[in-house]
């Protein structure tokens, strides 16, 4: 089973974060799972990590769309401009939303960094496939 | 037995054969010399099996050398019991050379007896080495010839660029004296420095791939320093044992230049088209626009959609102009096939039904090699020109009608020595017997010079010459010979026509027949001489005066002339003088003395006044008779009464005067009347046109002939003309043979108590005038029944001369208020700039079509109108014909539609958002619960994990409930619009809300200020309460560290009542969140409890009552929410 070092989850819903953590843990896909309910804080965390411990920079980022104050799209804008060329590796950015609207899905893929769009729920099967596809 | 080695070898052969894909099997029975071959074998050899029965048949296919050595190989194999492989060259049935590899193994029967050879055969031509070698040696001569004589420049150079070979074409191309001058040089000598790297790269690349490099366009430097553009292709090449590069260079200098100039000429053409003041468009073969002029767009583009010279490029003509006629499309096709089509006048019917005349030309345009690339369309609107041409034609027709009907001949002639005629009226036939055509024909035309009486020619030309020199009118009388040889006396009056520089353009005039007058004159002349004769016999008196006695004696005749009885008085000199007219007396004395002194014969014309006051004109003749010494003896003389002669002279003068009057009036019939209306004289060119003969007419009075209303008019005018010596005119109509005829009488004073009345038949003129009036009537009729409002106004004063009923309806004013007033007086123009630009355009273009304007009616309503105007001439006044198309209703409908569409778009957007958010907020917890249930340890319910999972399930269920409640609330708002409005006092509402929120208000310490300029409003009470509560609780919730102040104000703003709630709280950065402020589930403060639905619900509530909400906010300063409700119709 392929394994990555670090996974970052950004979702304003505590329950969802609880579930994701449990699912990812069950697949033993990562050494480290970090969750944030506020996108802005996640950004700050990423900036900090890139500076102090680049090795710990997440391999996978799961990002929700509908969040207060800073939603998924605003996060993506900021993320792209902040980490445009500084990073050695590009983390796998997955949108993880309960939205099943085609509009959202199409919009997600207009961002170069977004490689996957996953409609909730996140299952261990999806996790396994994701790792197989991108990290084996 | 085949050894292992054999097997190995045949294996490798088999492998090779299989790889080549063409393996044939063969078997030779040594005893019976029978050859067995597989079909593939025969295919390889291209020879049927029937022709290969024995080994020898096969060997015959081989070349002579091969045949023997292959036979040897087989024999060796048979002897040595070994396997073999031999490659031989064969010639197939189709004369192709092939290399075949035969391999074989000896076969033995069970007694180890040799029975034959079996093996495979394959086509090894694929190895090619041999055939290429051969081809090379065969083709070397050909190749070298090709190289040498190729029309292309061919160069062979080493990979380093040293030229090994160059053909004559290369030398020509590079302007080298000979091929030898190039060989040994580096190719870089002839190429540009900046291209050297590319050239090296290209060589490297072809040596690597072994195939040709693509064409490369570059500049070459020739021996004489000139530059040429060439296109080179290079291929790797084996030449004399080394790898070299073959370069083929083609000179494309001319082509490049041509292409460049072509491109620029095409661009120039496009620019030219764009900037030309003409209407031009350039289209490609598919009728898509390549370019067009601004005039073209101005002329043709009538749609509302904006169009400009850039935008039109690439658009299709037929798609832009759906109404292009089929015949025009057909002509476009013809043009694209190479024809240039010019149409001087064509027309199409415009939307308003009018004919628009155009002139157009379609010309194909081509590229450099003459291929048609499209069509250039030129158009010109010529309606105005066409109309004025028609008008001129009409006027000319009118003029010539008049001219053709004049008595006499009107002419125009060129300023050349023969005065060649360029115009002659029909009168020429009556006058000269010649038709106008005979005067005007090209070939030997009749000229007046030819027909003028030879005695008069000099006089005529001198008179005309003098008149031209002084730029005066000339009047001459002369004789001509008519066509049938008669002499006619003509009167001609004419003048030169000069341009503004004084250069004479032509000579024009009128010629009349005065033979009759001349005849009268002649008769008078004749009678004069007769009179003289008669008087000489009968009417000559004589007298004698004796010098010494001073005695005078008269003959009887003398007495009679003086009106005296002979011998009644004794004559004396004093008597003589006394009898004379006082004015003649002095002269008479002088003449008398003169005769005495000079002793010469003398003559005196004088007047004698008889006792009864009758004047006699007389001529005195006197002669002095002297003695031999010269002393006077007596004076003798005669007295001749010349009164009759004198009268005839006067008659002649009168007749001449009459002629002059006649000429100045260009008469048809001339009457001389007494001022009382009695006819005295009549001159008529054609007696039949009078109802009475001239004789019958004489002595009659106009009163006897005309109806009282006409005759009284005549007599009044006769009197006026006579008294004032002015021209008077009377127009009257008579019914002649059932037809209404119109006449014009021009009356001038002729002499004392007499007038000259010139009657002219003006029926034709009158009828066309009446027709014009009729058409004018028709115009006004159309004007009045037009469903489109129309006005006619005076261009200078703007005064409205006529308007139709539709216009009156449009502006809602009675006719009497409108006519005579100007548009400015009436304030029709809603905007002054509209009027100014409209008038400007009208002045500039002569007409205006489709002007968008706004018009004000009397009751101050504004109407959207489209105006079209044209300059017209009515009653010799320049007027504006203005048509007004009222598009207010259409505009209103359009606006209503736009509003409706906007509303629908907004509500659609909202609905989608609603569906999106609710589905999201419903789906998320459901999905979570689903996953959480899987986490539950159902076997061991006491597992501590379950507690945590159940806790999360509970949260998710709460979220689900909350979202469902939100939806229910929102649906309730949408439903509440059907509840009735009631009168609500703002003060009451705020009292209720502050009571509801009293605990929060108390804990926040908020202070309120109220300013209710509007006291109440008609609304749904529960909704307003909810709105106010939401706004106030928001203000409290998002308070800052400062003490909270909330200001509430109500006031009227336009058609709205505004309720504004202002706080000094945290505020929101609108530059970031403006779009989402009133959205669903939007939150802007992380640390404050909230679902982000409050403002969304508030907005929905406000909008459900037809209101709107706006926000102003600044972080850390505060927010203002302005809620607007439309003023209710029951408000006041």
UniProtKB/TrEMBL annotation, chain A:
Record keywords: Phosphoprotein
Stretches assigned to the Response regulatory domain: 6-135
Superkingdom, taxonomy of origin: Bacteria
Key word Phosphoprotein present: yes
Signal peptide: none
SMART domains reported for this sequence: REC (SM00448)
One GO process term, biological-process aspect: phosphorelay signal transduction system
Record-listed 4-aspartylphosphate modification sites: 64
Pfam family, one: Response_reg
Gene3D superfamilies for the chain: 3.40.50.2300
UniProt keyword Chaperone, yes or no: no
Cited InterPro entries: CheY-like_superfamily, Sig_transdc_resp-reg_receiver, TCS_response_regulator
Protein name: Response regulator
TrEMBL record, chain B:
A molecular-function term among this protein's GO annotations: phosphorelay sensor kinase activity
Domain named Histidine kinase: residues: 917-1129
InterPro entries xref list: HATPase_C_sf, HATPase_dom, His_kinase_dom, HisK_dim/P_dom, HisK_dim/P_sf, PAC, PAS, PAS-assoc_C
Presence of keyword Phosphoprotein: yes
Keywords tagged on the record: Kinase, Phosphoprotein, Transferase
Catalytic activity entry: ATP + protein L-histidine = ADP + protein N-phospho-L-histidine
EC number: 2.7.13.3
CDD domains in alphabetical order: HATPase (cd00075), HisKA (cd00082), PAS (cd00130)
Name the record gives this protein: histidine kinase
